[in-house]
Design brief:
By secondary structure, the protein is α+β, with helices and mostly antiparallel strands. The protein is about 25% helix and about 30% strand. It has nine helices and 18 strands. The strands form four sheets. Strands 1, 2, 3, 6, 7, 9 and 10 form a seven-stranded mixed beta sheet that branches. A five-stranded antiparallel beta sheet has the order 11-17-18-15-14, covered by helices on one side. Strands 5-4-8 form a three-stranded mixed beta sheet. The relative contact order is 0.16.
Amino acid sequence: MHNPCISPIFAGLLFLVTAVTPAVVNSGPSLIQSRPAPHTDNSRINLADVLSDSTTTTVNSSSTNSANVACNSRLFGSQLNLVMCMEALDLIPRGQEEKSFGIRYDPVGRQADVKLPYRWLSPGGACGFHLYLLAPAVQAHVSYDDIVAAAGAVLACVSGGERGNRGGIATEVGGDNKLAVAVINTNYETRNVHCLSRTPGPPAASCKNLIDNGIDAGRDLKLWGDPFAQPPARESLPAFWPSADHGCWAQVRMDRGRTQLASWYQMWEAATAIYYKCILPEGITGFTDSIGGARTDPGRIRMTFSRIPMMAEAQSKD
């Protein structure tokens, strides 16, 4: 899917500014769990909210389809590194064929080629491009070349002189103007990811399948952990989520008797961070042990990716 060669058009754009699951129900302390029931959708962004924010600055763009670019450090982060962001841009596929991009769990069952939210991160995980639908849309039809052009345009926020190094968003992308491409600082999501240099990772394609199709991304907070604690956890741990081909497993656990508030979106973010920081660039596995909580109360949920579900090991350590 990734093509390291960039056409002269895209090179010029970059110069200008210097992405078989078993149906097991999660009830009680069941270990192997597949895709959960859908929760609150997190695929869309309200353009009016972005443009009305007092820290938003709009910039002129001459990119394909005249995508509108707005820079906003509060919403999308600051201190972005242009080189790392260009490395993330290089991971976006190329192609003129129009694809459908839709919400992850469509209430009427519409299928999409790409399920949102979706993002591409730089190899170190510090910069990423994140796709949104512009509310109230449920699908957008866009080519990857349009996305690459919009991503290149929004890099103007990162390289914009005195007020540069900010995140931002390019809106009204593609043929129907319903997609947005944001450049974001993802250091917060990846700084607690640890790569295990001596442990070969599971197949990257299998893990990507799991992240794209096997993990929910709703923002509703749920109580995770011990189902026998008081109050009991709604999402039982330990849990093991397989890819469709069972080649990649996400193992999620925390200490016995403990519970932690977290969202499925935080799980999706953690899985994406491990994939882009460890599995894809290095071919090794990795983990994070701080999912959930808040900045003043770090999470205690641990996620590890592996080739096989090491259930006995996880249970013995809990």
